[in-house]
Amino acid sequence: KGKHCVFYHRYHLVWSTKYRFKILRGDVQLRAREIVRQVCAENGVEILKGVVSSDHVHIFVSVPPKLAISDLMRRIKGRSAYKLFREFPRLKKRYWGCHFWGRGYFSTTNGAITEDVVLQYLEKHIDNPTGISR
Fold first, then answer.
1. Which of 64, 37, 61 lies closest to 48 in space, CA to CA?
2. CATH topology for 10-124?
3. Which of 12, 25, 75, 133 is least buried, going by the fewest C-beta atoms within 10 A?
4. For residue range 20-75, what is the model confidence (pLDDT) as tens digits?
5. Is the CB of residue 101 less than 8 Å from the CB of residue 24?
6. HEC profile of the chain
7. Where exactly are the structural domains of the chain?
8. What is the pTM of this model?
9. Which of 8, 19, 82, 121 is catalytic?
10. How sure is the predictor about 132, in pLDDT bands with cuts at 50, 70 and 90?
């Protein structure tokens, strides 16, 4: 809930380390998890489930409508890379270009209703018989 809205925005987000190096182990893995949690908490994002594997991260989150997914990913990847490089200097030998994460990420939405349910709802609740689309 927000002050003026109720939302149900859930996303499955996945991103990987540069070159899929299996570097997220031990202390680095724990610290990466802690940083992701911290960034999400600062931005009002609720982590419903998450896994930090050796070369990628999966999280299932509830995101407020004021926050774009691209901004959330930029903040998570940017802050975690910066802090991990500072706290674990050995990572700089592996990632000499100072790029810890791969360039992209995967995002998909997940809701309680399907597209068919929304279309059926709109069909039953049309005020204007011509509708908005086409």
1. 61
2. Alpha-Beta Plaits (3.30.70)
3. 133
4. 999 999 999 999 999 999 999 999 999 999 999 999 999 999 999 999 999 999 99
5. no
6. CCCCCCCCCEEEEEEEEHHHCCCCCHHHHHHHHHHHHHHHHHCCCEEEEEEECCCEEEEEEECCCCCCHHHHHHHHHHHHHHHHHHHCCCHHHHCCCCCCECCCCEEEEECCCCHHHHHHHHHHCCCCCCCCCC
7. 10-124
8. 0.82
9. 121
10. very low
Query: Sheet of 10-16: strands edge to edge?
Result: 46-52, 56-62, 10-16, 106-110
Active-site residue, 121 included: yes
CA angle 23, 28, 33 (to 5 degrees): 110
